[in-house]
Amino acid sequence: MPPFHWFDAEASPPRAAVAKNGMVACANPWAAQAGVEILEAGGNAVDAAIAVQLVLNLVEPQSSGLGGGAFMLIGTPGEDGGDPEVVFIDGREEAPSAIEATVFLDEGGKPFKFSPDRITGGRAVGVPGTLRLLEKALTMGSGKLDPAELAAPAIELAERGFPISERLHRSIRGSAHRLRRFPASAKIYLNADGTAKAEGARLRNPDFAATLRLIVEKGPEVFYEGEIADDIVAAVRDCPVAPGVMTKEDLAGYRAVLREPTRSTYRGLTLFGAGPPSSGGIAVAQILNTLEGWDLGSMQPGSPEEIHLLAEASRLTFADRGRHVGDADFVDVPVAELTSADFAAKRRKRISLTRAKKSPVPAEIDTEGRDTTHISIVDRDRIMVAFTTTIEQGWGSGSVVPGRGFLLNNELTDFAARPEHPAGVDHPNRVEGGKRLRRTAVDADDKKLEGGKRPRSSMSPTLVFRDGRPLLSVGSPGGSRIIGIVAHTLINVIDHGMDVQEAISFPRAFNRDGATELEWLYWDDPMLALRTGARRTASGLRSLGHDLVSPTRTNRAFGGAHGVAVSADGKTVTGGADPRREGVALGY
Asked: How far apart are CA 130 and CA 134, in angstroms?
């Protein structure tokens, strides 16, 4: 096990990791090590991703796990410069069939207070999809090793325990008021007096180890149709806080499905992303398509000129996202139009080089959780995986399934609380539990219309290819900021020639159809100039009419991106881990 790494965002940025065979970049050293060991044992990128996810469930439980959902892209290089094969697996959570559109409104028709009321308890839990996604990735022929080998690192670590990191301790402490409302959660993460377990204390989770052993023995059906399903339903319906309506039939009917990934081009490269129910692939493509009309490479990275264009393109994109994007099984989403060059050209005409503009429709209040996590992996055969996985807000619903050792999501809070859009039409992301209007999955054997709506996501796992050859896997957590984080990282790599670590470490800026958000470094002009060469970005943006938002001292950094790049000749891989969290990139 490598030494624990934690790089504060104010420290010197870490250097990129370089290796010949394979690379894992993820949010925790224990998980990264597990992924590399799987690659060394002959597993491929999909095998490693499964092992990493299971360990993250243990060491970064506030962000992802079996009780949540995920999107995975798997990219295989094209032969002799031909098209790569890219698979998009949708393991997003679903609304229970009996849910009502007013689930998050009080008797007076007003939304419940978001935190802690809306996000805590059984009412917010969607039908989990992560395990079905992992099963899908493995059984469709993508994996090489058997489930027992892939679960072994997590089982061993759960049984012997691991020291609580500084970041995990801070997260437990910050959510102890929610966790102590659930005895099964308090048992794992809190002391007997209800305080957070200390940094450095050994955290064991034998219940989670037993859960994984049972899944290995009986298969995912035990989770969706057997005794674990019974426990999940009981945890939701008998929840001591805001009981929900999930049934065992909801779990049994859940499917992880294959969907068409979004496909776009930027500066001659081909980009693949996650389509609906994610808005991520659409939005990243639209931002980059819009910006392709300017030579960003000739601009100073982080300069007011560059950030102005990025913010304006993002503002327009988020306005379109709010108006048009939801689960495409329930609403018509014009994916082809939104990701087209012609549409971007129309949006580009709305951007002034000398003045920021305001949207005529009020921006939606962001409720999407930021404690998601992202995994990027490239293996010896240059198969790439981009895997973004979540339980929504930090610690999800707050409820650990008793005796099972994993948290349940609160993903239903990603739906709009009100069924109406501010523009005066039905909201494309309103809550719905009825039958689908259509089935947009490309799985030939799964066209049935049963199953609830999947809430809109901003998760943006992205794969980039050059002439069919793999170039980059990247993604990030961060709620609706994910879109801007990924777009900004891609600009740093593609337009400015940064390596993946430099691109990830670079200070971030974006706009979500409101004020322009700048990370802390943009407010310290001498340090900004020393680190990046950019000067007076904040004052320059103000002179262009931008309303600016600066992060607070306790929330200075946005996201937790991870990425792996492949050299032009394919002989080496380079990994980048975000210094804003505790992740690492490890290769072999």
From this structure: 6
